[in-house]
Amino acid sequence: MGKLWRWILGYSDAAPAARTSVAAPAPLRDVIRDTPEAVPLAQLDERFHRFVLGLPDYAVDEPSLEERTLLRRLQLHSVQFDVRSLPRLPTVLPQLLRSLKADNVGGAQLSKLIGRDPVLVGEVMRVSRSIYYRTLHPIQSLQHAVVLLGQDGLRRVVTMHVMKPILHASAGMFGHVAGQRLWEHAERCAHACAYLGKSTSDPFEAYLAGIVCNTGTGAVVRLLDQEAPAEIGPLTGQFLAACARLGAQISLKAAQHWDLPANVLAALEERADGRTPPSSQLGRALACADTLTMTQVLCDHGLLPSGASPVGAQCEFFPAAMIERCQQDLQRQFREAEAQPD
Q1: Within a 13 Å sphere around the CA of 237, how many CA atoms are in the beta-carbon half?
Q2: Is the separation of the CB atoms in 97 and 258 below 8 Å?
Q3: Cβ–Cβ contacts within 10 Å for residue 226, how many?
Q4: Is the pTM of this model over 0.85?
Q5: Which runs of consecutive H residues, i.e. helices, occur in the chain?
Q6: Do 224 and 214 contact (CB within 8 A), yes or no?
Q7: Where residue 189 sits, what CATH number does that domain have?
Q8: Which of the residues 240, 255, 283, 334 has an alpha carbon 20 to 30 A from that of 272?
């Protein structure tokens, strides 16, 4: 799959194995009503991961013996995690991505390739009709949509097409709800990271960093579905924080396996380290985008009051006015776009 990403980025060839687990009803979650508008990062992070796993709020912070035992098993699995176990990719992608590298490929040829994958057709049409690409006349054909998006836009759509099944690849006790919620975060984080990094980083590298940053979280969810006993309970904040760190480490492994650009790897490495604030421009954009995205997703689902803002070092890398514009852009791109018919 590393060569697949080389195609996306304009380098060079390859693809990976799906898995499933038994579906179970998602645990109920509590709606948080009396939350202050300024949300500390640790609190925001815990609420987001409870939301992803479908867990209620839980006041106990000290992990139980059962949780500590489970965490040791997860840590062992994460060290041995085989990135080749990530879901296999659609067969049309290699040829399409090769074509996107060529400057002389026309819209008709790209449309023909995209037309072989109905899901990708749907994504291209959906994005071309979004508020971002609003046109005077409705988009009526796939070829019109392809021309409107251009090669950069198509690279983003194809990247979403690659990542969505990877984040949706679990259907067990925790994964039953996690896939869609991780995807909500991924596409927003990619957009926010590209927005914040537009003056200091390559826009597509920033987009990539945002969309892959929670790949490892999806893998940890699948490990939880395999290892956690059914009676494990709502899980403590310390346990969830440890799982988030494992997820960041697996995300870095996956990105290295896919041969993503050096700047993306550096940003993900800073995120996986977590002991000090990121120093790279892309690492800072990713940290801030991740925080803003978690906030927006929780607000959209009524788990934070409308207008809540995160507080912490991640939000101090950029001027307050730029962060506010990024938040407004996220709201416009996703809340309004989702209200539009496909």
Answers
A1: 13
A2: no
A3: 15
A4: no
A5: 2-9, 41-53, 65-79, 93-101, 107-114, 118-128, 142-167, 175-196, 203-212, 215-227, 237-257, 262-273, 281-300, 320-330, 337-339
A6: no
A7: 1.10.3210
A8: 334
Cα distance between residue 142 and residue 112, in whole Å: 9
- Cα separation, 276 vs 205, in Å, equals 22
Please name the residue that has the structure tokens 């035992």: 69
44-72: per-residue pLDDT in tens? 999 999 999 998 898 888 888 889 999 99
CB 108 within 8 A of CB 144: no
CB 24 within 8 A of CB 176: yes
Q: What is the DSSP letter of 309?
A: E
Coil vs helix vs strand at 28: coil
Please report how the helices 281-300 and 41-53 are oriented relative to each other, as an axis angle in degrees rounded to 10: 60
- The answer to whether residues 228 and 268 belong to one domain is yes
Q: How far apart are CA 252 and CA 268, in angstroms?
A: 6
- Token pair for 145: 């949509």
C-alpha dihedral, 207 to 210 to 215 to 220, nearest 10°:
180
Residue 108 Cα distances to 112, 114, 124, 128, 305, angstroms: 6, 10, 14, 16, 47
Q: Which residue has the tokens 């390739």?
A: 113
- On whether both 273 and 324 belong to a single domain, the answer is yes
Query: Encoding tokens for residue 245?
Result: 């760190």
136: Cβ contacts below 8 Å, ≥ 6 apart = none
pLDDT band of 6, cuts 50, 70, 90: low
**How far is 309 from 324, CA to CA, in rounded Å?**
9
Task: Provide the domain count of the chain.
Answer: 2
